[in-house]
Design a protein that fits this description.
With 461 residues, the chain is an alpha/beta fold. 44% of the residues lie in helices and 16% in strands. It contains 17 helices and 15 strands. The longest helix is centred in the first third of the chain and has 26 residues. The protein starts with a helix and ends in a 5-residue tail after the last helix.
Length: 461
Amino acid sequence: MLDPEQWLPLLVVVFTIISIFLLSLPSTFRPDVRFKKDGNPIKTRVQILVLGDIGRSPRIQYHALSIAKHGGLVDLIGYTSSELHPRIRRESSIIVHGLAPAPDCLRTSNKWLFLLFAPLKVVSQTLSVYYALGYRTPPAKWLLVQNPPTIPTLLVAQAICFIRNTRLIIDWHNFGYSILALKLGSTHPLVRLSWLLERAFSTKATAHLTVSNAMARVLQGKWGLKDLVLPLHDRPFPEFQPLDESQRIGFLGRCPDTGPFMHKLSTGDMSLLVSSTSWTPDEDFSLLLEALVSYSKLATSAQPRLPEILAIITGKGPQKESFLSRIGALTEAGKLKRVHLRTPWLSVEDYAKLLGSADLGVSLHTSSSGVDLPMKVVDMLGCGLPVVGWDRFEAWPELVREGINGRGFHSSDGLCTALASLFGSEKQDLRRLRQGALLDGQRRWDDEWDSVAGKLLGLCA
């Protein structure tokens, strides 16, 4: 048996360590403490976390703006590599907290190096997110987290909510395990582990918001989540509006990518096709290239009255350079004689005007889970722009109604056929689809958010 003189110092050390640990824990949210801003009480305080680039996360930015609009105070946490929405920068009730990116040495597209570097990257992200949520920002009543990414976001969020007495809302954009499957394959053990962790870490949330009804059914059915699961569909923000003819002509004339083709665009000898992308594996732009090659061949042979196409594809991402190389090779080989391709990066304002000026939008989003929806299509419909898109996933009909506001396809030949049909025959079918798009675009983000998230947060009646 240990002598008191031996174990007493050890006991003191243990209690000291425990005391230091408890005293260093993040402060706790107290419902009886009222937050104030400029001396005025605020309705609620919300932390919003996206383990991604805030500027390329429009839905997260819209959440923040809606909360601020209704009298809440927002701590918006994420990477700040891209330009933020202009209204975010002007809104004093939104405080942006940038996360330090993971070291460049841990980034790789190699499958085997990914398996080696991923654990180290997770550790780096865990520390960064925990510090931001627990120490850089005051305690909040709510923590709204974008998922995916799942690891380590949901684990850290659960820990912070437990420590700080905060209520967790998970905003489901997709399933993290399904995106990982694109890189490793659906049968890989890490994909199975990712699914198990994603399901386990989501069970203690106060509520779940989903981008589709189909996603809500999966969470409630296959995942067995018993908490509140609320579909909150993406809807266009005020920037995305239809343009009248004078506004359209004005934008096309000043935009560097459309100005040189202004005469043909105004006479109908050229049609403007628009898409946007993050250049990731869940969008196969080889389909678009193959369809445009087929269209060019058709327009120079069997259907010479088809208009030329100016295809503008906006966005940034890892596969863009590969796509540009393919465009160059096809152009040099003379396979895009009736097609002109441009790949600019545009501001939010100019991107909205481009959509309002275009003839047709295209979506190549294939959905890794089958139940997420591409926000680009929402923006297109908000501008009254009809859409053609890949339709072989469950949630697609929630957004695009066949023959009413757009058309679906599931092959490059199908896309080529749709382009030839809509751009030919004096564009009668295209005009009918535009009327459907204008009608669907009338329901806006505020209409959707106020009735779902606004009520959940106690900001809207």
